[in-house]
Design goal:
heterodimer; A: alpha+beta; Alpha-Beta Plaits; 2 helices; B: alpha+beta; Double Stranded RNA Binding Domain; 3 domains; two-stranded antiparallel ribbon; Mitochondrial ribosomal protein S35 (chain B); Ribosomal_mS35_mit (chain B); structural constituent of ribosome (chain B); Ribosomal_mS35_mt (chain B); ribosomal protein (chain A)
Chain lengths: 204, 334
């Protein structure tokens, strides 16, 4: 019915290769300080969606290769997922799905709220040629739903967002606003003029 | 009114349900149906329009009972709807009705109901299915470090916040050009800046600084890719920081109008008050700088100085004007 979304819903996402194949050196999960987390780079997970709906098997038996890399995981202080669509009941169901998925994956949900809807109305001429006094009115309603997640790591965010986005219903759009937190970079800790006092100042 | 020829999806015409051979009740309702009336007529191409001879049509296959009759109560629903599929009336064992009830009627049943097919269904995302999916996804998730449970701790250790937005929508293209925008937020109190550097930084940055929250926001969207914009934002932060520590030769020409805050020393207010006090005082005391210093050292003059500075910096609120009044009264012994 609707135009096919570019992210089609498939069973069990993670069919994409997240660069895990190249990191084939076995690296253990090294000791992480309280603040840094090693990222878990995912490799290709061979999960085949069952096309016939009579079988219940959708988990393949081959074990997935999860590789662990040394680079620290990004930390997201806040991830705001906002969906908008024309039907509020569809958004209700989607909200139930997203919140349940977050709970199952152990993600802290900040708040779930519904911004007020937007109605765009237009008044057009009813007839092709004349009859200015006879018009027809249309309106387009856009409903919104926002889910705020807090304190989520980069790997978990990738997993959750891909799962959510693959199961986005047709006719619903999504915006994800991610706030990542980082340390102050090393080159901003001290001004570099202190170390080179004799450096010529550039001309104005 | 046997309507056996329609095979298009949206056929708005009177249905005679007996044409299906399913239901004997004749209901004259005008509804769009998705089921083709006669599957056999779809198999023929051109000749079907010219005439329908009973002999040329293939016999219609008998439709068996729907699958719902055979479903057990404790079946695995995730096997029935493992992926997102349109609604199938024969596979969903629920007595769902959808549509507008006509006069004296009820919403139409699920069989051949286009409204149920149009709306996106979540039959593949029942709680059992979600649990199964999440069980499979769990090994790919990492835990949040337990030491960073409060926002204050996060801000202390990770003061720089980088905000970016992703967009998902259906359309002709996957990409959204607004996704390249990167916003970098940092509190200036975190950075190692001295007084002059801070003032220079504020002048360089201008509108991007918010005084109430002490947050500098750098928004970059000039590059086509998000990674490029992020690198550019980091570069801007570095450059601002290092440039604000530099003191250029022309900065010595800073005038009173450029100053961010009002300072009382060397201002007309100080001159005025000194003149007034000197004239009021008995001329017996020696003139010159010693008198000035003595006067300055007085507590009333200090209070006056504080009140004037406060008035100029903060503006006219009740408390600052009152403070000024008290200070003036004390200085002139009124």
């Amino acid at each position: 019915m609707a135009a096919p979304t570019t992210l089609r819903r498939e069973l069990l996402p993670l069919a994409r290769i997240l660069g895990g194949i190249s990191h084939l050196k076995p690296r253990s999960l090294t000791v992480c300080s309280g603040h840094r987390k090693c990222s878990v780079t995912r490799s290709h997970l061979p999960l085949t969606p069952s096309t016939s709906f009579h079988t219940a098997v959708f988990l393949s038996s081959t074990p997935s290769a999860i590789t662990v890399t040394e680079e620290p995981d990004t930390l997201f202080q806040k991830v705001l997922v906002s969906v908008k669509g024309h039907d509020s009941t569809v958004l209700d169901s989607y909200e139930f799905f997203a919140t349940m998925a977050a709970k199952e994956l152990g993600i802290t949900i900040g708040k779930v709220f519904e911004p007020p809807k937007d109605i765009e109305r237009m008044t057009l001429l009813k007839s092709v040629h004349i009859f200015k006094k006879h018009r027809v009115q249309y309106e387009m309603r856009t409903h919104y739903r926002c889910i705020e997640l807090s304190h989520i790591t980069g790997s978990t965010a990738k997993v959750y967002l891909e799962y959510i986005q693959r199961n986005l219903p047709e006719g619903v759009a999504m915006e994800v606003k991610k706030t990542a937190m980082e340390k102050v970079p090393a080159h901003i800790l001290k001004p570099l003029w202190e170390d080179v006092p004799t450096e010529d100042k550039p001309s104005q | 009114m046997a309507s056996r020829t329609s095979k298009t999806l949206l056929s708005l015409r009177r249905l005679n349900i007996p044409a299906f051979g399913l239901n004997n009740a004749v209901s004259r309702v005008t509804y769009a149906t998705a089921l083709s009336m006669n599957s056999s007529s779809g198999k023929k191409g051109a000749p079907e329009r010219s005439g329908r001879e009973f002999g040329s049509r293939k016999p219609r296959r008998e439709e068996g009972e729907p699958r719902t009759e055979k479903m057990l109560l404790d079946q695995d629903w995730t096997a029935v709807y493992p992926a997102a599929t349109p609604f199938r009336a024969g596979s969903v064992p629920l007595p769902v009705r959808m549509g507008y009830p006509m006069k004296g009627g009820v919403p139409p049943e699920k069989k051949g109901n286009l409204e149920l097919i149009k709306i996106p269904n979540f039959l593949h995302l029942t709680p059992a299915a979600i649990k199964k999916h999440c069980e499979a996804l769990k090994p790919f998730c990492t835990e949040w470090p337990s030491a960073l449970d409060t926002d204050a701790k996060c801000d202390e250790h990770f003061p720089i916040k980088v905000e970016c937005t992703d967009y998902v929508s259906s359309g002709l293209s996957v990409r959204n050009p607004s996704a390249r925008i990167v916003q970098l937020k940092v509190k200036l109190s975190i950075l190692n800046l001295d007084d002059h550097a801070r003032k220079k930084m504020l002048k360089l940055v201008g509108e991007r600084y918010c005084k109430d929250t002490d947050v500098l926001t750098i928004t970059t969207d000039s590059c086509p890719l998000r990674q490029q914009n992020y690198d550019y934002a980091q570069y801007l932060l570095t450059v601002l920081y290092h440039e604000s520590w530099k003191t250029e030769a022309w900065e010595a020409e800073k005038t009173v109008a450029d100053m961010e805050e009002y300072s009382w020393e060397g201002s007309p207010s100080q001159k005025n008050i000194m003149d007034m006090l000197l004239r009021m005082k008995v001329a017996g005391e020696g003139e010159g700088e010693e008198v000035q210093e003595q006067l300055l050292a007085r507590s009333e003059v200090q209070e006056y100085k504080d009140s004037v500075t406060r008035l100029k910096n903060e503006g006219d609120n009740e408390s600052s004007v009152l403070q000024y009044k008290e200070a003036v009264k004390k200085v002139f012994n009124l």
